[in-house]
Amino acid sequence: MRDRRFAAGRVAICITGLLVLTLGMYRLYELPRVGERPAQWALLAGLVICSGLLMALISPIANRLLMILVEPVRRYGLWAVAACALVAFSGFGLVAQYVLQGFPNSGDEYAFVLQAETYAQGRLWADVPPVVDAFRQYRFFELGDKWVSQYPPGWAAILAPAAALGLPLWVVTALLGAGTLFAFFRLACLEVSLQTAWAGVIILGTSAFFILNSASFFSHSLTAFCGILFALMGLRYLEKADFRCAVAAGVCLGLMGLTRSYNAVIFVVPFAVTLAMISGRRAGLVWLGLGGLPFLLALLAYNHQITGDPLTGVASLNGGEPFGFPASESLRLTVKRLRELIVWTSPILVFGYIVALWRVIAQRRANFTDWIMPLTLLCFLFYFGDGGNQYGPRYYFEAWPFAILTLAKAADPLLAGAHHSRLRWIPAAIVASLLLQLSVSPGRLGLEHRVVEERQAVYNEVERAGLKNAIVLISGKVGSIRPMPARDLLRNGLNVNDRDIVYAHDLGERNRELMALYPGRNIYIYSDIPQMNASSERQSSHSGSLRQSGIR
User: Residue 534 above 50 pLDDT?
Assistant: First the structure.
């Protein structure tokens, strides 16, 4: 009886503590700059302290909580996983529609949307708008008479059917996010017990990192899905030597390469080395290549149509990707990405991954999947891009499920029923990391919602003013939490001439060219005016100044 009262008291304390932590984190994320780069070291330190306190608090009842967590998969098996994927799809859709408001929240995302709409029209490129300087964007630009995205065609080709049907494009990303969780479970079941695989799915799918990327228009949801299917087919080929598995792995790798080529290289290297080292599996290199060959040919053909050179992508004509030898700048970016990974997931998971990787290697249980995360960290030392507007360190998104898989392999002996004195801390770590992610996510979602609202202030102001048949020039950056330049904010679609309200850059004296192009329209200039609540130091509202230009 005393033990039950003690356990009930602990549960009550945990629930109360979780609610307090969730409310506290939500309020914390409402403060200026919290969650942004200048404040992330302080936020990281706070999360580390909270992680330690949570582990200490729940340690006596962690085993019981863990048994409750895995009970659905014990009782219902794959039906529980399917239900989880359905709930995840609904959750990602709700976040996409109501938190992110279906808004392409970066130049990258909008370039993907325009590219998908182009393909939906049965074309590979759009027509260059007149006075193109007034409509120039960061990731969508002109090559002669072609207006194209800088990105390979894979992701846009997947989005295009939804665009052609008039469906919201976030349906595709939400579906891929849910599919990734289901595929991860099937992959994990090849390596660990049913219960451990289930715990991995829950931990993977409850971080703000995974939720927001699965609700966005970034291409990472597709490449993560392809990456997991590639690993699943690869492991099956190593086990059964069935050439169809190797071909299927090649197909997944090919679609990944048609979307994010650098990630495909990272994924294929450890698998190719594994095949080469096993005499009875070397033929898999041929089957793998055959599966991926059609996608390589498609990419070469696409490049030839757009740039005139099969080996030259669109990005190469716009300065190319920022590759280089590791230097102090790339080390700084790597530290920043790792710091963001901790903040966007959990300190327990990131630091625990280091221990888990060492343990799996020491026990000689590592396979090619365990090397994907370390190789990703290494390869992005050669990449000097910071990712721009993003939800967490998005360059690590494809590899993060494999870090969770390595963690699952290290924790599996305990969840599978074995008892090891050295592993007694694992239940507390699993439950604490899950609770921490659940408590932090609402605050992070609230912050991203406010960022999206700020960036749409110009469109809301135009709607409130009731403007018709007008040109709106966006002058300067918009937003105070995470200011966005005008080149990322022009939302005119593919055909500028069909718009009732045309958004453009302020070209100064050259604005007369716009007047000549659109006779009879008034020109307005929008400039951003953030307003702060001095008493609470919180962002209370965000509006801008919309004034009519004197251009005639």
Answer: no
